[in-house]
Amino acid sequence: MYKAEVGNEVAGEDPTVNRLIEKVCTILGKEAGVFMPSGTMCNGVAYRVWCQRPGDRIFFDKYAHAANMAAGLPCGLVGATPVGIECEKGIFSAEQLQSAIGERKGYNLPQERIVSIEQTTNLGGGAVWPVSTLQSIQQVALRHKMVIHMDGARLFNAVIATRISAQKFCRYTDSVWVDFSKGLGAPMGAVLCGSKAFIDTAWYYKFQQGGAMHQVGILAAGCLYALENHRERLAEDHEHAQLLAQLLKNHPHVLINPKDIETNIVIFRLHNTKLTAYQLAHALLGRGIRLLALDDNKLRAIVHQGISQHDIHTVSQAIQYALNGSSLPA
């Protein structure tokens, strides 16, 4: 990053940014791209490009991160109507999408506009959308003149887990972004991709949201390094997630099926214990272990770069000590 060649990104003159965008477009099979500070900005910009009037409907899985954990982004920033679809592991079927869209039309009804998909699913436990499901979802979207947007925060986890290329996953999308600060380990940065016309419009909203940057090649260089060197190591995160599930599965106060763990996200439930998930998360945080309590009984752990096999054993031991009512080990 220190040695990065830089230029005016706004004028398209930062060579490191340009190399990053070109590489990502090739990997995803898209025509054009734009560098963004974060994935959240990618979602906001993409939704604003696609939504044509206030109130347009965006369809998510019910617990999608962009709809529930992004400071009210669909309503507050985009002015859209989010529609949540109840589904297993964050993956809805073409039939479920069609049912959510419905058949009613009228001047008083918001227009269906976007199908937003997380690859992999966040609160769905890191599940991978199958290519066949994406294809069937596209057929429904085309019938209703909708577009498909992919939140690809963990797209490369899906690629490593299945050995299916990113291009195959993205073939059925109109816009998609990838993140470099999750498992890939860069400090920050994301690239949003789509057609040239889509990216030309995205630039307008990027400016409006304060995303235009100068000499930002220092950040793009970190993203390039992560892209070129850290994708294959995501398999290690998946192995560590599976290890955590295996270590927890026989605990009398934990409900988890290791077969449900597809990538690097572990979700488990508490069972027959006086501790709530919030209390357990608070106790673990005091030992430098951060888990997210999703409700009174459910917690999420995400494995990423920098977490070793030894760390996984430490986390498992700390959870078991806390649930047994013992003092956490030092």
TrEMBL record:
Cellular component, GO annotation: cytosol
InterPro entries, per database record: ArAA_b-elim_lyase/Thr_aldolase, Low_specificity_L-TA-like, PyrdxlP-dep_Trfase, PyrdxlP-dep_Trfase_major, PyrdxlP-dep_Trfase_small
Names of required cofactors: pyridoxal 5'-phosphate
Record field: transmembrane: none
Family: Belongs to the threonine aldolase family.
One Pfam entry name: Beta_elim_lyase
Quaternary structure (record): Homotetramer.
NCBIfam families reported in the protein's UniProt record: GntG_guanitoxin
Name of the featured protein: Threonine aldolase
Domain of life: Bacteria
GO molecular function: L-allo-threonine aldolase activity
Domain Aromatic amino acid beta-eliminating lyase/threonine aldolase intervals: 1-268
SUPFAM superfamilies registered for this protein in UniProt: PLP-dependent transferases
Keyword Transferase (UniProt): no
GO biological process: glycine biosynthetic process; L-threonine catabolic process
